[in-house]
Every structure is written in C-alpha cells, then in structure tokens.
Amino acid sequence: QLADANRFFDWLELMLQQSDWFSGRTAGAADFFIAPMIDYHIAEAGSDHVWLDRPQLEAWFDAIRVRPSFVATGGN
User: Cβ contacts of residue 31 below 8 Å, gap of 6+?
Assistant: First the structure.
C-alpha cells in the first residue's frame, strides 16, 4: 500500500507545480478534502516518505495545517 500512496503523493506534487493550491489561486474544496487524508496517513505511517523529494506538497501541507478550519476539525 505504501507504493500506491507514494504514487499518489508524486501526482499531488506534480499538480502543485501549477499552483499553490489544488483548487487554484486560493484554498478550496479539493485542498480541504485532501488535507485530512494526508494528515491521517502521516499519523498512521509517518511522514518521512511523504515529504521525500516533494517540496511543493510539504509547503502546501505546512500552509493548510495552520488554517483555523483545519485545526478546528482535529488536524495535527
């Protein structure tokens, strides 16, 4: 399953090369849907493999995880 997750993270990294957010110029539904899934994955499997060679994804997660809406819904 980790190989499948890494392929997904690679795809997310590619998508973030076009914009800072998955939803376009600002955070939106796609970002708020993906963030909790990544947060859960990190809680279960750790984060080292998630950020490896994925600077866009890491910067995106750093930005979304401090948003009050993410924190209020139980994000780490």
Answer: 21, 22, 23, 60, 64
